[in-house]
Structure formats: structure tokens, C-alpha cells
Amino acid sequence: MCTNESVENAIFIHGFLTSSSFWSESISPQISNPNFRTFAIDLLGFGQSPKPANCQYRLNDHVKWIEKSVIESHKLDSFHIVSHSMGCLIALALAAKYPNRVKSITLVAPPYFSSSEVRASHNALMKLAERRIWPPYFSDQLDLHFLVRDMTKHTHHSAWHTMPNVICGGVKLQDRNLEIIEKGGVSMKIIHGDKDRVVPIECSYGVKSTVEGVELRIIKGKDHNTVIFGIEREFTRELEEF
Fold it and tell me: With the CA atoms of 176, 181, 184 and 187 taken in that order, what torsion angle do they form, in degrees rounded to the nearest 10?
């Protein structure tokens, strides 16, 4: 039995139009380390989480929901963050708010666009939209029935507002958040499939060029989902060793 001191907490943040099942159906069953305690969350407005009609689902709304439902509820003094796609923007905002508590952050296919670019938010939305981030891209080589089911677990309001508000809000704050995380000495790893047709692989190279000491792993032959699905065991071992 592990003591509180030996427990490694990990918060898993999913992307757009998915839910906690993105992680609970793939990575959670593969975790073998008994000292790992995982929290695969449903973002506000998705999965089984509340879906308030009066919420604008901004970046800060999602961060506050994670604080309330996980960090404060379970009294987490330290934790790792693992995130995918749009969830990476929320992960960076969360890590920047708690740089002294976050032990590491893993970004899988992060949609990074430098906030120094003119009309950065607009450019981000246009580049992601043309790459079919809405709806999310599914590989025809895998049985991902739970992802199809997840697409019914949100409201039009929560989805309609989350996409532009998180992307726009996240892009404006990304460089500031990355600077805070870097100064806090938080270990960061990026994983990206070279066949990703949703988030440009250049995004991950952009993060690496912005933050010193970032570990970047490009997985050949993998797309936006198969960068995880199909290699769950390998992916989980890599997380446990990071």
C-alpha cells in the first residue's frame, strides 16, 4: 500500500468533442504503477460534467472547473498533467496557475500558435478549421466507438462556445503561460504524430523552439488519434517513465 508521500497524481485532459473516456478507455487500463493515481476528467460541458446554459465556456471556466472538481476536491498538493489537442491549451493555463505544484506536463498534438503573430487567434482558428478539427478526425483503421458516443455528450451551447473561446483565449496567453512554466522548472514533453491532419506538426516544433529543455517526440506513421490509440501500452510506459 502506498503512502500519501509516494502517490503520483496525474490529471488527464481530453480535447474537443470527447470526454474522460478518451483516456479511461485507452491509458488508464494500461497503468501498472500502483503509486499512480489518475484523474481523467470531463471538461465543463462535456461527458458527464455539468453543462450550464449561462456559461461562455472560456479558458478560465474550464480551469476553474478542474480546480473545483479535482485539485480542491482531492486536495492535490502536486500533480502531473497529460493533455491532448485542444486540452493542451487548458493544460498550459492550469500549469501556469500552479507552477509549484505541477511536476510535469505532457502535451499530445498541442495547437500552438505564437501570440506574437498578428491576428494570432484568428489565424489559429482558420488553420485548425481547415484541418478538420471540427468535427474531430477519426481513423478508419481503429474501432473508436466510444469517441463516436462522446460526440453526443455535450450541448450545442457548450461545444459552440468552447471551441472559439478556448482557442482564442488560449492562443493569446500561450507564450505567457509557457514562460511561467519554464521559469517554474516544470518538465515538459511533447508527442506528435507525423501524419496528423488535425493539428499541424509545426505547432509542436513551435513550442520546442519557444521553451528550453522541452522533449519532443515525433511518432512516424501516426495521426491525431493513433498517436495514442493502437500503441496504448507503449504510450503509458513512456508516461510512467517521464
Answer: -160
Task: For residue 225, give the nearest of 201, 188, 192 by alpha carbon.
Answer: 192
pLDDT in tens, 135-169: 444 454 455 566 656 666 678 899 889 988 998 77
Q: pLDDT tens, 197-231?
A: 999 999 999 999 999 999 999 999 999 999 999 99
When pLDDT is averaged across residues 177-183 and rounded to a whole number, the result is 97
Cell of 10: 496525474
CA-based nearest residue to 84, from 227, 218, 181: 227
Q: Which residues pair with 189 in a beta bridge?
A: 106, 215
The three-state secondary structure class of 26 is: coil
Confidence (pLDDT) at 135? 43
Q: Cell numbers for 78, please give them.
A: 502536486
Q: Is 224 in the active site?
A: yes
Active-site position among 192, 196, 204, 223: 196
* Contact assessment for residue 13 and residue 83, using Cβ atoms and an 8 Å cutoff: yes
Catalytic annotation, pick one of 14, 62, 84, 154: 14
Tens-place pLDDT, residues 4-35: 558 999 999 999 989 999 999 999 999 988 89
- Burial code (b: 16+ CB inside 10 Å, e: under 16) for 40-53 equals bbbbbbbbebebee
Q: What pLDDT is recorded for position 125? A: 63
Catalytic residue among 85, 192, 204, 223: 85
